[in-house]
Predict the 3D structure of the following.
Amino acid sequence: MDIKEMVLEKAKNAKKASRILAGISTNVKNKALTAMADGLVGAKDELKNENEKDIAYAKDKGLSSALIDRLMLNDKRIEGMASGLREIAVLSDPVGEVTRMLQRPSGLKIGKVRVPLGVIGIIYESRPNVTADAVGLCIKSGNAIILRGGSEAINSNIAISNILIKSAMEAGLPEGCIQLIEITDRQAIMDMIKLDQYIDLIVARGGFELIKVVAENSTVPVAKHSAGVCHTYVDVESDLKMAEDICFNAKVQRPGVCNAMETMLVHKDVAQEFLPSIIKRLKEAGVEIRGCAYTKRIVPDIIEATEEDWYTEYLDLILSVRVVKDIDEAIDHIMTYGSHHSDAIVTKDYERSMRFLNEVDSAAVYVNASTRFTDGNEFGLGAELGISTQKLHSRGPMGLEDLTSQKYIIFGNGQIRQ
Amino acid sequence: MDIKEMVLEKAKNAKKASRILAGISTNVKNKALTAMADGLVGAKDELKNENEKDIAYAKDKGLSSALIDRLMLNDKRIEGMASGLREIAVLSDPVGEVTRMLQRPSGLKIGKVRVPLGVIGIIYESRPNVTADAVGLCIKSGNAIILRGGSEAINSNIAISNILIKSAMEAGLPEGCIQLIEITDRQAIMDMIKLDQYIDLIVARGGFELIKVVAENSTVPVAKHSAGVCHTYVDVESDLKMAEDICFNAKVQRPGVCNAMETMLVHKDVAQEFLPSIIKRLKEAGVEIRGCAYTKRIVPDIIEATEEDWYTEYLDLILSVRVVKDIDEAIDHIMTYGSHHSDAIVTKDYERSMRFLNEVDSAAVYVNASTRFTDGNEFGLGAELGISTQKLHSRGPMGLEDLTSQKYIIFGNGQIRQ
């Protein structure tokens, strides 16, 4: 069977399964999620063995330490996947929720009810724990799922999805509701994104190139989880100790993920006081600094940033730093070079905090906190299927509600239109 | 200037205007809407004169009476456009609405706020009143709009949009926030749907071919307003008088619009009693009946329906009729041939009413009412920018809220991620 036929068959089976899954009770779905969690914890050693193959291959290929960190499965992360599934089981089921119901002058009662989208295809790279999060969220929201992970995590993904599928079938979910495309050839993606007859949403998580190819070629609606070129702007009136802690955390706590800070913007009037101390602390933590000319004048022992740096999502211990003359220049910089993911201001000033919130057009805009919080769990949605950096349908972390559609239901007693 | 450059320049101007418009107060937007309404009413004669050119051209081309009805502007319809704009002025402004705000264990307050999408491009056919509805909804929701109406209504659309733009500018809206693409060459559409850098949403309203071309080629997210192949299913236990009134209304009251019924499904056990009377009444109203073999046995003097009829949106005084053996066959028919727009059941049975609501996967599902109610005004949304027949972002009539995105706003006091 060729790739195209294989992908088509999986999509058809998923569509069939989705019709059954839409009617499965919350109890059965929760039982399946718990069984999946138990399954993962019970198979720790097997999962770590399979993951080691991927890690070895990544090291062979000379991938960065940040990328290898994203790829790694250890006991803690396997338990993390399991507890993610258990948390999803505890969340309320969005399916069937009536979000409004109005009585109109005609006497019609018109309501909106949440229904599953149907079949969700997810195209992702690197982190194998995405496999479990994505399956958990799709199943809980009544959607069938087709997974297409990256080649670098293929052994881990096969191992994880086999356990999830087995647990789901035992709990009574319909066959075909969870499927992994095991072919790492990019052709599988090209075939998948044309199947609008069977797939209702493509979630694309990955690098700029992948997202671009998917967005340009897909006939299925796409939720883009694009690069996180996240900024923190340290305002003129700000608690500089707080600013230092927030910036340090946003860069260093986990540099390999999309909500880590990539560019620090500093108001010129606090640059002299703020920069030497934060840069020293960052350097001690192994961060390479790429600063603007002004930054370099204050802290000479750094690399000078190029225009390209401002656009770059390093996903690594590298930070670009720019001194700006005011909040307008900071917002302009973010609007020009940012990726509309997560951006923060540190300030004591009320009006500028409000301006930043209103004018920065990103999925998550922060006052006085680390951008690292942009995450389904931290936002109280349970796990997330991705962080949407587009405006349509969902923005920011995509939780259960974001995986549903709302249809109108109308209760009449003979109304006709005049 | 060639078409591509012209469209690009309009899109760039719209983007620039959208940044200003996002910060314009509700009062100013409402003032503009009222001025637009006054402007249209004050220019009735001019509008009718320009519309006459379109009508004459349509008659020349031999378009159907239903299509000519869609195209026509008379005093009542011009007043309808104006009152639509006034109704939008009265609706609350969705921009700035905080739809939730939670305090998380970290102490972070995390909220979601509605913001404009930015620039909305609308590609539509026929009805010139769409021009006013679309402008009103986009302006009220803080979005710049690029209009691309069909060639058949070009004179009406130019006249309407000139009045709207003039009124908007006088009321203080930013230049470029309302733009019409006057070129009716299809190339303008192809250029427009590639401008994802400047346009945030394309709303596509029109025939199957237009929607298909737009969906397949657009790099901008598309809200499809596709065909309305709407059904009414007359169940075995139903008030046949009510069923007759609902079916008659759904077909005859305004056959040229997307929420009109195209196929009537009748349970076999009531077919003998129901069909002769409703078909007689429909025929007297000028409706051509295309029935299944079973229908033809009961009412011989009709055309026999072909497989293609079940897929067809006539938008005219034509109805296909099929006798089904039960609700399962009715739902199967709707899922196979329907366009997921609006479908109704007429029944006295509680369980079957619930099954129909749950299992029919359409934007609007009715019990005991005419499908003709699927409409922004009737649903209490004010006017509508289109009726989305897809599942992503919005489904059904797209009102003000559907033209916004929600971003996360996070209030901290120094939180860092552990």
In short: The radius of gyration of chain A is 23 Å. Chain A touches chain B through 64 residues (CB under 8 Å).
